[in-house]
Inverse folding.
């Protein structure tokens, strides 16, 4: 059995680690939440006491963490991966942006630990089903080593050698996802105000040229039934939009659309709370329009 270290067992990390256990790997897990750690141990993982402990026991360490600051600490802090005796490669599954990725790469390079970025797309559902899109950057030979692990999680796309380039790809993906969720919310609220049935609207959009990842996945699963439980926090969306704006501004490219989208997400985080599910972003549009979209109590289903 191959030892694989896994740090950060949240909405995304937990099902990924679970898949790796089911795939026959010896998963050495760490999370600051002991309840979460107990849950993964009950599924067959072995508990570690710190990120360093994980890196003392596994050559390959994966991390799925909530912010660039946490990733930096986990990778290079005093009880971080950098201090581990066995680790050869660190794989960042989190979305941290290219600046943090380059910093982590440079710090780990000083200890001859290879850093690979592998941010993911596909949500909690993709994580559970093993259908994530994984965008990978780092040394090609190291990508070849971890490829079987990534293939248990979804479909890996090799972006290039340049540290952080997979993070840039991921931010490009997420700004579009951020964009179409607010755009679809605004449009469906308009239709409901005009008297249209939102479930019918979503069906028509999905059969027509207005289809988006929001109308296809997020509305049927979490907005129309009003469960708002898609599994991605509004605060994480704000993080990704800010990271995108940082990168785009550093490059000196136009950001007119992204800045407008960014303002809407900042307001959503203030109104709904950073821990709210990002599908709850529609509530601000509903409030401004004086309507409610969907809801099983109205006889509408996804
Ligand atoms: P999450 O907040 O659900 O999970 C983060 C986990 O990290 C938690 O279990 C937390 O206890 C743990 N943690 C925090 N600090 C830690 C530390 N110092 N050491 C060890 N564990 C620590 O977040 P998530 O939704 O799973 O997202 C993780 C990453 O994946 C983020 O970068 C996010 O942007 C990205 N992502 C999320 C989704 C999604 O749909 N949720 C999709 C694609 C990418």
């Amino acid at each position: 059995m191959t030892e694989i270290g896994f740090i950060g067992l949240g909405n995304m990390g937990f099902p990924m680690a679970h898949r790796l256990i089911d795939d026959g790997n010896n998963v050495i897990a760490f999370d600051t939440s002991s309840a979460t750690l107990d849950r993964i141990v009950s599924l067959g993982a072995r508990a570690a006491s710190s990120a360093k402990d994980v890196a003392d026991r596994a050559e390959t360490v994966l991390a799925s963490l909530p912010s660039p600051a946490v990733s930096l600490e986990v990778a290079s802090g005093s009880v971080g991966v950098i201090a581990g005796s066995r680790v050869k490669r660190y794989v960042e599954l989190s979305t941290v942006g290219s600046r943090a990725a380059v910093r982590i790469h440079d710090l780990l390079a000083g200890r001859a630990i290879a850093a690979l970025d592998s941010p993911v797309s596909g949500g909690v559902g993709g994580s559970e089903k093993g259908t994530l899109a994984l965008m990978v950057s780092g040394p090609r030979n190291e990508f070849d080593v971890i490829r079987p692990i990534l293939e248990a999680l979804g479909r890996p796309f090799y972006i290039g050698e340049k540290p952080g380039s997979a993070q840039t790809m991921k931010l490009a993906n997420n700004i579009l996802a951020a964009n179409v969720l607010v755009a679809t919310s605004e449009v469906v609220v308009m239709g409901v105000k005009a008297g249209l049935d939102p479930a019918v609207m979503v069906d028509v959009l999905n059969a027509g040229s207005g289809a988006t990842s929001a109308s296809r996945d997020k509305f049927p699963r979490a907005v129309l039934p009003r469960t708002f439980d898609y599994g991605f926090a509004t605060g994480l969306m704000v993080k990704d939009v800010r990271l995108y704006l940082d990168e785009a501004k550093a490059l000196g490219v136009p950001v007119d659309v992204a800045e407008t989208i960014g303002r809407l997400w900042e307001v959503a985080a203030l109104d709904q709370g950073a821990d709210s599910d990002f599908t709850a972003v529609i509530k601000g549009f509903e409030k401004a329009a004086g309507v409610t979209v969907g809801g099983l109590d109205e006889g509408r289903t996804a």
